[in-house]
Amino acid sequence: MVKKCFYSFLFLGLLFSCKDKEVKEVSQKVTSVKSYTYNELKPLLEKNDGKTYVVNFWATWCAPCVKELPAFEKLNQEYATKNVEVILVSLDFPKQIDKRLIPFINKNNLQSKVVLLNDVNEDVWIKAIDTTWSGALPATLIYNAKSRKFYEESFDYEKLETELQSVL
């Protein structure tokens, strides 16, 4: 009898823990992405609040961008308590937010802040973000109050962490 009750209790515990997990996963699904013009995005690229920001410009259609996203996600997780914030700025087409970007975010369980840059004046904002940027993706900006570095290249975690450390 005790053994039977133990297994029933264990089963109920597993059942409830699975249900909690399902509810948690459903509640974490992204349903919208904030869209910015360059003028609206600019304050996110110039904060002076004591944090270090890692801003990655990417798109779901960019294979090197997608390949490096796990490095940014790991950095976001590892440095969350160290006053570092990762922001993923999508350059996907605005018409594809619901059909491509949001499903991509949910499928890959992206935890970093994701925003969409929706501004057709790329000749203006590309050079405003960094004068050396050709507009190619992926591109990354790492900055804080003391330092600002721009990279037009792909990263693996080790290289990304090294570059972050050089700014910290």
What does this structure look like?
Residues 24-168 form the Thioredoxin domain. GO terms for molecular function: antioxidant activity; oxidoreductase activity. Keywords: Redox-active center. It comes from Polaribacter butkevichii. The protein contains six helices and six strands. The protein has 168 residues and is α/β, with parallel strands linked by helices. Strand 3, helix 4 (97-107) and strand 4 (113-117) form a beta-alpha-beta unit. Mean pLDDT is 88; it is low at 1-27.
Briefly say what this structure is:
By secondary structure, this protein is of the alpha/beta class. It contains 6 helices and 6 strands, in the order αβαβαβαβαββα. It has helices at residues 2-27, 38-41, 63-78, 97-107, 122-129, 157-167, and strands at 34-36, 52-58, 84-90, 113-117, 139-143, 148-151.
Q: Which percent band covers the strand fraction?
A: 15-25%
The largest sheet has its strands arranged as 1-4-3-2-5-6
Question: Architecture of the largest domain in CATH?
Answer: 3-Layer(aba) Sandwich
Helix content: 40-55%
Shape: globular
**CATH class membership of the largest domain:** Alpha Beta
Q: What labels describe this entry?
A:
single chain; 168 residues; alpha/beta; Glutaredoxin; 2 domains; 6-stranded mixed beta sheet; 6 helices; 6 strands; 45% helix; disordered N terminus
Question: What's the layout of helices and strands?
Answer:
Layout: H1 2-27, E1 34-36, H2 38-41, E2 52-58, H3 63-78, E3 84-90, H4 97-107, E4 113-117, H5 122-129, E5 139-143, E6 148-151, H6 157-167
Parallel strand pairs: 1-4, 2-3, 3-4
Antiparallel strand pairs: 2-5, 5-6
